């Protein structure tokens, strides 16, 4: 599951450009798009978005690895 640290996020929007089905930018902060289809966000898209974030505000946990 992706997470955005709003204390670090500056709203550059790279995440929303790379993964618009996962992230959106409002009020100069990235927010998660609600996944209404019941499927988790594509981990590859989340990884690419996290790698592109200049503020390292995006993290991702694999639900399969969570207890």
TrEMBL record:
Superkingdom, natural source: Bacteria
Keywords: 3Fe-4S, Electron transport, Iron, Iron-sulfur, Metal-binding, Transport
4Fe-4S ferredoxin-type domain segment(s): 1-28
Presence of keyword rRNA-binding: no
GO molecular function: 3 iron, 4 sulfur cluster binding; electron transfer activity; iron ion binding
Cofactor(s) essential for the protein: [3Fe-4S] cluster
Annotated InterPro entries: 3Fe4S_ferredoxin (IPR001080), 4Fe4S_Fe-S-bd (IPR017896), Fe-S_cluster_ET (IPR051269)
Ion transport found in the keyword field: no
Gene3D superfamilies: 3.30.70.20
PROSITE patterns: 4FE4S_FER_2
Function: Ferredoxins are iron-sulfur proteins that transfer electrons in a wide variety of metabolic reactions.
PANTHER family in alphabetical order: FERREDOXIN (PTHR36923)
Protein name as annotated: Ferredoxin
Annotated organism of origin: Actinokineospora globicatena
């Amino acid at each position: 599951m992706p997470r955005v640290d709003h204390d670090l996020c500056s709203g550059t929007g790279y995440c929303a450009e790379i993964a618009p089905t996962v992230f959106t930018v409002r009020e100069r902060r990235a927010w998660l798009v609600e996944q209404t289809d019941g499927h988790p966000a594509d981990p590859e898209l989340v990884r690419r978005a996290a790698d592109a974030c200049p503020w390292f505000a995006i993290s991702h946990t694999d639900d399969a690895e969570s207890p």
